Amino acid sequence: MLLFPGDVEVGSVAEGRAFSHWLQGLPIKGPRVITWGNMGRNAAELVPGATVIVDAIQEVNGWLELDEAESVAFWSRLLPPSSDVDIILTHGPPRGIADTARGVSRGDIGLLKAVQALEKPPLLWVCGHIHEQYGEHRVPHPRAPGGSILLINSAAYYVQKPEHAAKVQPRVVALPEVKVVAQGA
Prior knowledge:
Elements: E1 2-4, H1 13-25, E2 32-34, E3 51-52, E4 57-60, E5 63-66, H2 72-78, E6 87-89, E7 100-101, E8 104-105, H3 109-116, E9 124-127, E10 135-140, E11 148-153, H4 162-165, E12 171-174, E13 179-183
Parallel strand pairs: 1-2, 2-3, 6-9, 9-11
Antiparallel strand pairs: 4-5, 7-8, 10-11, 12-13
């Protein structure tokens, strides 16, 4: 399964087909699951061949995926403590974790509180948006094994810069063990 946390510009049918062709050409077994982020949010119908999630909980191949919203009220309604979510996919990060850009914390506090209140913590969280914070992070959670959830910020803008290229690479995560088993192209 491929999890893609957004920031792709798809504004036309031709761009949607090109992006979909690229997604389908990746050496991935299973579905391609994407969310839009702050680019192309209303273009979901333009990318055939992918499961596009926007402001919803959706099961994909037996895993539940979650997309982003903006308020504490939204997250507490969408993600009550009894929710059984395996993987969280959001465009943006939680407040205080992988969320600093130009010295400003840009994460969502409601999202962080809702996830930390879950009775059953998710196995994995994938986000993007804050390109400067790419890589692996840990989200404290009182009921998670080891006390935290693996969060991968897969924002890839900096792959274009030689000093960042080695670290800004896709990760392969084994579930349910929740460990990164490979990194790189």
